[in-house]
Amino acid sequence: MKRPSPPIAARRPHITRQLGRTRTDDYAWMKDDNWQQVLRDPALLRADIRDHLNAENAWTKAMLADTEAMQAALFAEMKGRIKEDDSSVPSPDGAYDYYTRYSLGAEHPVHARRPRGAEAGEEVLLDEDAEAKDKAYYQVGAASHSPDHALYAWAVDEQGSEYFTIHIKSLADGQVLGTPIESAYGDFTFSPDSQWIFWIWRDENARPARIFRRPARGGEDVLVYEEADDGMFLGVGAASDDSHILIHVGNQETTEIWLIPARDPTAAPIVAEPRRVGIKYSLDHWTDRWVIRTNADGAVDFKLCVSDAAIPARASWRDWIAHTPGHYITGFAAYSGHLVRAERVNALDRLVVMARDGAEHIVSFDEEAYALNLETGYEYETTLSRFVYQSPTTPRQTFDYDLASRQRTLRKTQEIPSGHDPARYVARRLLARAADGAEVPITLLMLKDTPQDGSAPVLLYGYGSYGHAMDPSFSIRNLSLVDRGWIWAVAHIRGGSDKGWGWFLDGRKEKKPNTFTDFIACGEHLIAEGYATKGRIAAYGGSAGGMLMGAVANLRPDLWGAVIAAVPFVDVLNTMSDTTLPLTPPEWPEWGNPIEDAAAYDLIESYSPYDRVSAQSYPPILATGGLSDPRVTYWEPAKWVARLRENTTGDAPILLRINMEAGHGGASGRFDFLKEIALDYAFAIWALDGGWKAT
To answer: Fewer Cβ atoms within 10 A, N terminus or C terminus of the chain?
Structure first.
């Protein structure tokens, strides 16, 4: 069958002169000048752009028509691994247990509570599935009860634009109180006395700009904090002991925290320690002292300090848990009698439990690769903590852990209705050597009988930005490839914090190219060790990981049999030069500022996937995006695909799919989202099997 012709994007040269440099962008027209309004109402998208995106979607659908049965099978398998009427382990708080549960077939959960320790007496707090009825998109961010258990609030985004609306209702009569809070971030916090709700306002450029306080039962908003620096993110929460409300200001390299005493939630905030570029800290109040996690004084992998001062300025910090290179302190949780810190050592997680008298012990596991996550819960006056353990072969296990007796109680094991036998699989940890000698971990998952002669297809996943580690977790999705004889591999590359904060620092700004060459080194190592063959590796990444995909496609197109770039951040130079976009100023610490810094401009230009597309033979590529995405705007993948098609010297298809009803995270329902993953996987199978050559 003859392959249908792809859409041909018009070329309308747009010239930009910046720092004495000139660049021409033939596809700049794909960015709607009215993009801020389009985020809120996609119907406002300019007609010629909509027509082009619809044509791209139609061509992708036609090209992948032969995979539709495979997509349906993959989706059915993934859905079959989900317990449809699943529920969370209840979290106790005072007289109630709070939990979420799903009904059979429901895309969204029910939020509920019942009397503590009881099996009956459920009270529904929020039925997301009912609220989402007849809506193309529905995503709840934060959802929480007030400390006095009388109110319930939730933040909802009905477009994918991440502009949330916060609703508050009385649990006594179910009445929604006051007018909804509009243009909010998806997070909020009640004051410990339950009288106020603190929330974050997003400006017209979708950035956090102000924090307001509103009477929880309805009333006027009062400005609490306004941030003048467009490069800062905002957060608000409460201390573990409910002594303070905490306002967090920061970006990737600098932090500032402001305090409001809980006894007077209408008081003006007071800064704990003023921001200093390069100094990060977080803090919590532990009954009679402050505990501070910081990278100050050269503590690259962070240390813990304590302060007895009412306002914990840096001059009052005393070293408590010293910095140990390679022992990355990722966070901590405070309880009345214990403090639990999370650490990552050799790319594996562990928990260290500390009593108030200084005695400590370690909680860890013995598998070669696993993920261990602390869940803090609601209560402070307790000896029970909770953590979740999982590995590539082991489904999620939720444990309650007695911090005093050290007793572990397994509360729940993730149920796989269609069946799962961990003994069929093997997970391995390899080390690839980068060009500069760094050892890059790779986590593998495969069937025990998968041949290791290079014949198995491989999917190599990577991210490598913002210090986000790729935990070796369990995935119901990955099994659909592994059960077909694929090897699933995760590259723990620099730019993430898999081997500590220094691992992140070695993959940002001027060292960003390490991220790309690390990923390539992982692909080459899999080939050298007999796990893969050149051209039989599907490279997969999303968002900043999509930038990685664009970079490695430019650098080593011969290595990959397919590239899947989900919501890819590929137009790096243009995006980092556009101060109207939501994430541009906040992300200059990550990438550099090409508006003012010529060296940053040249560095970004040297790897920006869109700018580095060249005349060479590219492998099959699938790029996806969301029309309402405020993080990676729809025009980035659209422009990239157009330039790739213009320049490739080969005949492999380059496909684009834009979800016209969603944002950065794709479809909002738990099953609808799986259909998008099924499309990605079907594309990988189709590409590596050469299905595209038959069309």
So the answer is: N
Report, as an integer, the average pLDDT of 677-684: 97
CA torsion angle 104 105 107 108 (round to 10)? -20
DSSP 358-383: S-EEEE---SSS-EEEEE--S-SS-S
Asked whether residue 694 is domain-assigned, the answer is no
* Active-site amino acid positions: 543, 629, 664
Provide the domain limits for residue 513.
Answer: 14-79+419-689
- Residue 469 · residue 497 · CB < 8 Å: yes
pLDDT for 40: 86
Q: Give the sheet arrangement for strand 348-355, strand by strand.
A: 327-334, 338-345, 348-355, 360-363
Collect all residues with Cβ–Cβ distance below 8 Å to 130 and sequence separation of at least 6.
Answer: none
What's the whole-model pTM score?
Answer: 0.94
Coil, helix or strand at residue 525: helix
**Is pLDDT at 1 greater than 60 in this prediction?**
no
Using the Cα atoms of residue 464, residue 510, residue 637 and residue 623 in order, give the sign of their dihedral. negative
User: Which residues, 6 or more positions from 161, have their beta carbon under 8 angstroms from its beta carbon?
Assistant: 39, 40, 206, 628, 630, 663
695 confidence band (pLDDT: 50, 70, 90): low
C-alpha 470/C-alpha 492 separation (Å) is 6
Tell whether 25 is covered by a domain: yes
SS3 helix, strand, coil % of the chain, rounded to 5? 25, 35, 45
Nearest to 634 by CA among 623, 645, 644, 643: 623
- The DSSP call for residue 175 is P
- Phi, psi angles (nearest 5°) of residue 615: -75, 95
Instruction: Give 66's contacts (C-beta < 8 A, 6+ positions apart).
Output: 686, 691, 694, 695
Q: Which two tokens stand for residue 255?
A: 């932090």
DSSP E strands in 137-206: the ranges are 139-145, 151-157, 164-170, 181-190, 196-202
Percent of the chain with pLDDT over 90: 91
Pairing of strands 233-238, 244-250: antiparallel
Q: Are 613 and 647 in contact (CB under 8 A)?
A: yes
**596 domain-assigned:** yes
Structurally, the chain folds into a number of domains equal to 1
Residues 674, 81: contact at Cβ < 8 Å? no
pLDDT in tens, 476-493: 999 999 999 999 999 999
On whether residue 329 sits in a domain, the answer given is no
What amino acid occupies position 164?
A: F
At 432-476, the pLDDT tens digits run 999 999 999 999 999 999 999 999 999 999 999 999 999 999 999
Phi and psi at residue 493, to the nearest 5° = -85, 165
In a 3-state reduction of DSSP, which class is residue 238?
strand
| CATH number of 513's domain | 3.40.50.1820
Helix axes of 513-528 and 598-607: crossing angle, nearest 10 degrees: 30
